[in-house]
Amino acid sequence: MLAEVQAANAALSQIMNMVKHGQDISQMAGSCATYFNTKAIIARSSNKRGSKSQIETFMEFEKLRKQEYRLREIMIYAGDPGMWDRWLEFQKNCKRARAAEEKKKRLNRNAELKEVMGYFKAIGGAFSTIVGILIATFEGLKYMGYT
Q: I want to staple 83 with a disulfide (CB 3.0 to 4.6 A). Which of 27, 51, 52, 75 is the partner?
């Protein structure tokens, strides 16, 4: 958790420096991706119930929110016209990409589970068939008087 907070702070500091020096959002892609991913991890961990460090996570998330507010002010007043709007659009696109990636992972995991369950069904069916054949054979032998 602490590593994610530090990574988010470092990425946000890089983004703020780049904005102050007049660079465009496209040049900040790596820092932005790091910031968004770590912010999402922190948000998910702050939403977990029963966590001992839940209040600490919340406080760190609030610090990030305040830093993001400062970044907003810098982008609006010192950045290019419309930079904040492009920033929000960029965040939205990153969120969609993360959601699509998570959905893809979930679908792959479900496909793997389905495949494994298919193997278990096949093995179970084969085992049941073998047991049925053995029982029928022994009953047939008993009926014929061999046992």
A: 75
Q: For every residue of the chain, which 3-state class applies, written as one string?
A: CHHHHHHHHHHHHHHHHHHHCCCCHHHHHHHHHHHHHHHHHHHHHHHCCCCCCHHHHHHHHHHHHHHHHHHHHHHHHCCCCCHHHHHHHHHHHHHHHHHHHHHHHHHHHHHHHHHHHHHHHHHHHHHHHHHHHHHHHHHHHHHHCCC
Domain count, the chain: 1
C-alpha Rg value of the chain to the nearest Å? 29
For 26-54, what is each residue's pLDDT tens digit?
677 777 777 777 777 777 776 665 555 67
Global pTM reads 0.57
Domain that includes residue 32, residue range: 2-104
Q: Residue 46: inside a domain, yes or no?
A: yes
